[in-house]
Amino acid sequence: MLEAVLTNDGRSSIAALARTMDVPVSTAHRQVATPVSQGYLAQTQDRRHIAGPRLLRLLPLIDEKQIIANVAAPFLHRLARALGTVVQLGTLENEMVTYRIKTGVGAGDLFTRVDMQLEAYCSAIGKVLLADLPEAELASYVATGPFPALTRHTITQPADLRRELAIVRERGFALDAGEIVEGLSCIAVPIRRAGGAAVAALSASFFTSLSRREIAEALPALEAAAAGISLALDGPMAPAAVHREP
Amino acid sequence: MLEAVLTNDGRSSIAALARTMDVPVSTAHRQVATPVSQGYLAQTQDRRHIAGPRLLRLLPLIDEKQIIANVAAPFLHRLARALGTVVQLGTLENEMVTYRIKTGVGAGDLFTRVDMQLEAYCSAIGKVLLADLPEAELASYVATGPFPALTRHTITQPADLRRELAIVRERGFALDAGEIVEGLSCIAVPIRRAGGAAVAALSASFFTSLSRREIAEALPALEAAAAGISLALDGPMAPAAVHREP
DNA sequence: GTTCCGCTTCTCATCAGGTGAGAACATAGC
DNA sequence: GCTATGTTCTCACCTGATGAGAAGCGGAAC
Predict the structure, then answer these.
(1) A106 and A196, same domain (yes or no)
(2) In 3D, which of B124, B132, B142 has the Cα closest to residue B187?
(3) CATH number at residue B96
(4) A residues 186-205 near B, CB within 8 Å?
(5) CB-CB: which of A42, A59, A70 is closest to B42?
(6) Measured between alpha carbons, how far is residue A157 from residues A137, A142, A143, A145, A154 in Å?
(7) How many separate domains does chain B show?
(8) A38 in B contact zone (CB under 8 Å)
(9) What is the pLDDT of residue B18?
(10) What is the pLDDT of residue A243?
(11) Predicted confidence (pLDDT) per residue in B36-83, tens digit
């Protein structure tokens, strides 16, 4: 019911609300008066209704990235099974990548841990997320370089990283070709919200180096998963299905 | 309910929730299962509970500034009555000040309108809000100068504005001494959230120029009102009193 | 002014739907 | 294995939501 008030933001008189949600006015009145008395809603001087101060306190408690990871989880499990590899999901927190999901066969062989924070410049997920940063923030990040080399393939020079990120931005996915650990390759694609911002990224890891052909084969599945997650987040109202994966 | 889940964010099993909100487990189970089936909440693989994707869709519908203005309204009315002047509340939207409340005697004589957008560099409210901007954003704002002079007192030079804002930041309030309209003076103070960020500012307007003494007299009332609003927003849970001012 | 119309607020008899004890089942720890 | 703790579901009970209706309040039209 709250929902109706918020979607109308501002222009919702009680009578109008009653009409839009098709209930008697007396019911609408009470269903609004109760949340108002608790501070979840508020009414303006001219008897319209808006969100209340108590929602303001709940706002910072909501962890957007956590919700996204939770929604994404079943997609990642499916993807990992389809590809037969390890699939991970990461988000960017003050210029570090947080790994939030790790699933698939061989997950134990990979050095990452859930909730681990890692440098962004050397991972596929990190590069995808960096590539989407606004120019000002990106500039301040690359200014912290040159970056420590973890293998002989690691990109260490700011100028090289910028060039790499431009490529990532254009082609829509990122690669890590043994830049963290020798012999470990990853492909990552962004997960975008309705506004177009990349709020997370998912990657598939391979314990070999990848040929162009292998990349081209894996990519569609990754992109389909990312698109599915975007749709679940911002598309038509979720089907409310209960996912319960092993 | 929802609130308990959010405040526990993450570590809330059903049994734990039942204990913290002191209800039988079966009740807690249902009270969680219902929102989960609607997408307001979600459960993780390990049966803990977090916010659900549907809340993610409601998030952008909540207008923080509007809520704040609504909470602040009664304080402004009281302040205007106490000072016998026009009192206004404004917020910063992409470097312009939006006037959201205007109250008090003589409100008709002042050129501002509710919902009007005005340049920030020349008003007291604008200066208070600019002074609180992060350095990066402030730099990009002053770079848009020099600014058009509206009166012979208007600050037009970027360097002068930076100097003025440094003073504002230090002493905690801003003045407008005929910088928009000859003969109109304003005093503005910031309204701060718990984090310390200034999310809005309130000002008192006088149709004279102000002496040091007059400023010193009005200031405590302004600051008390701002403090009261901050408390109502972030202090101990609001008293849920029904304000109904003329 | 008077009349009308739409909105808000409150009351109260009715009954849908929430409640919570308890059983059945699933896990985890020792 | 056993015990302790958590999850899920059922069902008889009764609380608390429901909505028609009435009363009060403006504002617009005439």
Answers:
(1) yes
(2) B124
(3) 3.30.450.40
(4) none
(5) A70
(6) 17, 9, 10, 7, 9
(7) 2
(8) yes
(9) 87
(10) 37
(11) 999 999 988 888 899 999 999 999 899 999 999 999 999 999 999 999
| Three-class DSSP category at B215 | helix
CATH of the domain at A52: 1.10.10.10
Whether B36 and B128 map to the same domain: the answer is no
Q: Is strand D less than 7 A from the beta carbon of B44? A: no
Establish if A240 belongs to a structural domain: no
User: Which of A3-7, A165-169, B236-240 is most confident?
Assistant: A165-169
CB within 8 Å: A39 and B238: yes
Contacts of B233 in chain A (CB under 8 A): 53, 56
Element spanning B100, H or E: strand B96-103
Rounded distance between C-alpha atoms, residue A39 and residue A7, angstroms: 18
Range of the domain at A155: 64-234
The CA–C1' separation of B135 and D30, in angstroms, is 62
Question: CB of A234 within 8 Å of any CB in chain B?
Answer: yes
Q: How many residues does chain A have?
A: 246
| A128: in domain | yes
Residue where one domain finishes, among candidates A35, A60, A85: A60
In a domain, B219, yes or no: yes
